[in-house]
Specification:
Layout (H helix, E strand, L loop, with lengths): L3 E9 L3 H12 L5 E4 L5 E7 L5 H9 L6 E9 L4 H8 L4 E3 L3 E4 L11 E4 L12 H12 L6 E5 L5 H8 L4 E6 L2 H15 L5 E5 L12 E7 L2 H14 E13 L3 H10 L3 E8 L2 E7 L5
Parallel strand pairs: 6-7, 8-9, 8-11, 9-10, 11-12
Antiparallel strand pairs: 1-3, 1-4, 2-3, 5-6, 12-14, 13-14
Helix pairs in contact: 1-2, 5-6, 7-8
Amino acid sequence: MNDYYKVDFTVTPADGDACDLLADALAGVGYESFEPAEDGSSMTAYVPAPLYAPEHVGEAIAEVPMPVEISYEADFVEGRDWNSEWEKNYFRPIVVAGEVVVHSSFHTDVPEARYDIVIDPRMAFGTGHHATTTLMMQAILAADVKGMNVIDMGTGTGILAILAAMRGAAEVVAVEIDPFAAANACDNVALNLGDQSPVTVIEGDASALDRYAGSADLLLANINRNIIIADVARYSAAMKPGAAMVVSGFYVADRPLVESAAVAAGLQTAGAAELDNWSSMTFVKPQPI
């Protein structure tokens, strides 16, 4: 069942940087979305129910170095029709970089754009509204992916895989560890691309890449800092020489940690971008000498 825990944090005194650092620590233990107050006094975070553990919350709070007090309350949220929840409370059509419009099938007033992506979410992440998803979409728009083999790690709703296919990718492998998210991605891929889709959705973790060694021209990973660092060697092994990797899901302050892990995996830094203090980074796998 797609149950969640909704965890409400109170920060005293209010501190936006403390909320950012707390969100970063929580992302490392599976939290998927965050709703911070503008004044930094509070934040609501969501995590799949099987991943919720009070000790993880305590450890995340302990990682915040600011002189603040952080308290929290956790409430179980039973699995529900997330489409309905988004329609009532959150999800509105969004235009990314003037080229992509993302909306749900229940929307009627949709702006026109070059790429029209329909996402019916069953969870609270991956619709394009989060800064990291926007950064990844901007990277895909800036790349010439026509004819490429693309791997999308942590595909979520499938939005990045769908955009890569719309941009002309020859083959897209979309990997997702959560079974409900993987099922949602399959539905969204069919909704946008039909029976002739080049996208294959795989339920699994980074070990699924072992069968794709040396195959990717472009690897995408919008997950979180800790998972990227842990799995970047497998990402590198899945890339062709000369291939690029774009990663996001972490803050600007985390770039040195991500870069160090990527370089240790044999990759070279090729650029970075940021939005609302979230970061993406691009790495390339060098050609053999």
